[in-house]
Amino acid sequence: MRAQFVLSEIGVGLRRNLTMTFAVIISVALSLALFGGALLMREQVSVMKDFWYDKVNVSIFMCNKGDAETTDKCEKGPVTADQRKTIEGDLKKMDIVDDVYHETADEAYKHYREQYGETPIAGMITPDQMQESFRVKLKDPEKYKVVATAFEGRDGVQSVADQRNILENLFNLMQGMNVAALGVMALMLVIALMLIVNTVRVSAFSRRRETGIMRLVGASSFYIQMPFIMEAAFAGLIGGVVACVLLLAGRYFLIDGGLALADKMQLVNFIGWDAVLAVLPLVLVIGLLMPAVAASVALRKYLKV
């Protein structure tokens, strides 16, 4: 097969169907950008989970005077010194516990004032209304239920709370956004495939005289189909390159420049450029192969001479 002939046929096909080729490029670019964005979103959720789950604590809140009147769990009154000592000792004996920190009611009140001192409700809270607690750092945050089972219902314990529950809502939201992005990506992918098939069909129809002559002089089906397949692959590759540019620009705009989330949300561990660069080859490969395969399948039906 002469490469010069194939390349010239590709150029002819792209010029004849310029508008549809442009539509294919845009559709492929958007679908692959959404695909890459979904992969990066999943990586971001994984990074944030690893970062935050390693820092969350299990909080064991003790009964205070007010709890004795409002909850059955503290009907025996506020926690005593012996109960507090026993709970702390049992916590330190557990193999899954990495560290235990005791926060008194006064310390809890001080921290509360530091966070909410400017709000109207802050003036209504007094130190005796605050709960002392044990903040427990686990070696494996997934074993929260072991601590909850061991201490919930004990005398002097008002409740056991896992801070992971606060983060789960955020992670579930991000996962939902990820699923939505994948759904839109699938829709765009279907549209791109339909455009590719239609473009190949129109291109094959417009060149039916040439392909008929090539068939009569003994050209193989592969030789006849190759220019059409390479046209689709070339358009898909351009779309993949555009998708890569969108992903790089999106990462820069959202995290480093523009919105500058890295500066505004310093407690969040964002994905680095290495994660983005790792996705780009996959995007390019899919952008190249997907249109080529679609074109090959379409030609079996529409390229009949």
Number of helices: 11
- N-C termini distance: 20 Å
Strand portion: 5-15%
Number of domains: 2
Describe the structure.
Part of the ABC transporter FtsEX involved in cellular division. Residues 56-160 form the FtsX extracellular domain. It is a multi-pass membrane protein. One of its GO terms (biological process) is cell division. Keywords: Cell cycle, Cell division, Cell membrane, Membrane, Transmembrane, Transmembrane helix. With 305 residues, the protein is of the alpha+beta class. The protein folds into 2 domains: 1-52 and 168-303, no CATH class; 57-162, Alpha-Beta Plaits (2-Layer Sandwich), CATH 3.30.70.3040. Helices cover 69% and strands 8% of the residues. It has helices spanning 3-16, 18-53, 67-70, 81-93, 105-116, 144-151, 164-206, 208-216, 221-256, 261-264, 273-302, and strands at 58-62, 97-103, 133-138, 157-162. The protein has a 4-stranded antiparallel sheet with strand order 2-3-1-4. Helix 2 (18-53) runs antiparallel to helix 11. The protein is rod-shaped, with a radius of gyration of 31 Å. The chain starts with a helix and ends with a helix. The model has no long low-confidence stretch (mean pLDDT 78).
Provide the descriptors you would attach to this structure in a database record.
single chain; 305 residues; alpha+beta; Alpha-Beta Plaits; 2 domains; 11 helices; rod-shaped; cell division; transmembrane; FtsX
